[in-house]
Structure to design on (312 residues):
C-alpha cells in the first residue's frame, strides 16, 4: 500500500492512473490532494459545461505494488466508514496496482436512488470490482441518478 | 473536452510514461509539475538516484491525432516557447502525448530552430526511449562541472 513508508512512485502513479480513468468521461473535472497516510483524495465534479458543479463525489485512491488482493484488502479497511465517521457524499475507494496499472474500486458510501428518495449505504468493508472506463461510467451514472433524486428528499412535498 | 482537461490528461499520461517501471524496482525518472503559472515548461524531471541531473519538459496533450502520413502528432509549440527552451542551459524537451492512444513522443529543443508545427513520432517514450533519455541526460550533466566556486556570498 502507499503510505509514508512506500516509495514515492506508488502514490504518484496511482494518482495518475485514477485521474486518467476518471477523466475518460468528458463530463467530469477532478481536484486532488494528498491524503493522510499516503494516497490521494479526489473530489470529482460532474458537469459538462465547465462551470463549478454541485454534483460531486469523493474518490480515495490507494496504490499498491502487489497483484494479490489479500495483500492490500486489510490495509484499505481504514478508508471505509466506521462508527462516528460518517460520509456525507457518495464515496469510492480506488486501488491501483502501479506495476501493471490495473485498478479496482469499491463503494464506501454507495448512492441509492429511487423515484422518491436518495440515500447512502455505508460499507464497512469493500466489495472490489475491476475498474476501467466502463466502470467509471457506471459510477458516474449512479452518482448522477442520486443527485437527481436528492431534491425530492431535501424538499418536502 | 476543454483544453485544460486535455492538458491535465496529458500531464497524467506523461507522468505514467516517465515513471513506468517495466521490470525494474524503481522508475528512471521522477517528474515534478511546475504549476500552471510557470512559463514555457510544465515539469522538471529528475533522474532517480541522481538528483543533480535533471531536464525540463513542455507537455502537449492532444486528441487531434496525426498528420495523414502518420509521422507527426498534431501539436504545436510557438517560436517564443522554442526560444525560451533553447535559452535554458539544461536539457529541454517537448513531449507530445496522444491522450486517446495513451502514447507519448519526445523532441529535443536544445538548439535554435523554428516553431514546432507537428511533433515527429520517431522517438516514442517506451523502454528504449527512457533508457536513451536517461543516458543522454546523465552524459550531459556528468560531462560538466557545475559547482559555483568562489561565490561572493561564501562563508
Amino acid at each position: 500500500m502507499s503510505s509514508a513508508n512506500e516509495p514515492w512512485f506508488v502514490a504518484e502513479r496511482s494518482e495518475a492512473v485514477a485521474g486518467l480513468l476518471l477523466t475518460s468521461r468528458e463530463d467530469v473535472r477532478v481536484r486532488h490532494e494528498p491524503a493522510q497516510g499516503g494516497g490521494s483524495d479526489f473530489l470529482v465534479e460532474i458537469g459538462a459545461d465547465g462551470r463549478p458543479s454541485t454534483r460531486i463525489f469523493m474518490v480515495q485512491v490507494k496504490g499498491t505494488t502487489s497483484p494479490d488482493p489479500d495483500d492490500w484488502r486489510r490495509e484499505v479497511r481504514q478508508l471505509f466508514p466506521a462508527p462516528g465517521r460518517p460520509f456525507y457524499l457518495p464515496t469510492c475507494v480506488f486501488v491501483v496496482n502501479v506495476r501493471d496499472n490495473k485498478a479496482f474500486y469499491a463503494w464506501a458510501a454507495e448512492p441509492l436512488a429511487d423515484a422518491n428518495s436518495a440515500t447512502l449505504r455505508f460499507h464497512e468493508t469493500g466489495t472490489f470490482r475491476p475498474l476501467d472506463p466502463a466502470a467509471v461510467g457506471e459510477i458516474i451514472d449512479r452518482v448522477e441518478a442520486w443527485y437527481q433524486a436528492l431534491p425530492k428528499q431535501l424538499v418536502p412535498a | 473536452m476543454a483544453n485544460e482537461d486535455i492538458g491535465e490528461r496529458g500531464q497524467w499520461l506523461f507522468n505514467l510514461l516517465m515513471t513506468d517501471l517495466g521490470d525494474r524496482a524503481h522508475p528512471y525518472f521522477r517528474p515534478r509539475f511546475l504549476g500552471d503559472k510557470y512559463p514555457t515548461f510544465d515539469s522538471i524531471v529528475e533522474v532517480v538516484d541522481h538528483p543533480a541531473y535533471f531536464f525540463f519538459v513542455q507537455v502537449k496533450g492532444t486528441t487531434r491525432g496525426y498528420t495523414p502520413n502518420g509521422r507527426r502528432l498534431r501539436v504545436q509549440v510557438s517560436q517564443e516557447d522554442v526560444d525560451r527552451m533553447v535559452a535554458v542551459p539544461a536539457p529541454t524537451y517537448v513531449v507530445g502525448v496522444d491522450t486517446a492512444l495513451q502514447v507519448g513522443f519526445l523532441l529535443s529543443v536544445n538548439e535554435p530552430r523554428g516553431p514546432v508545427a507537428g511533433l515527429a513520432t520517431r522517438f516514442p517514450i517506451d523502454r528504449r526511449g527512457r533508457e536513451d533519455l536517461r543516458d543522454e541526460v546523465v552524459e550531459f550533466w556528468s560531462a560538466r562541472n557545475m559547482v559555483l566556486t568562489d561565490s561572493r556570498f561564501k562563508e
Notes: The beta strands of chain A are 28-34, 40-46, 56-64, 91-97, 103-113, 118-122, 129-131.
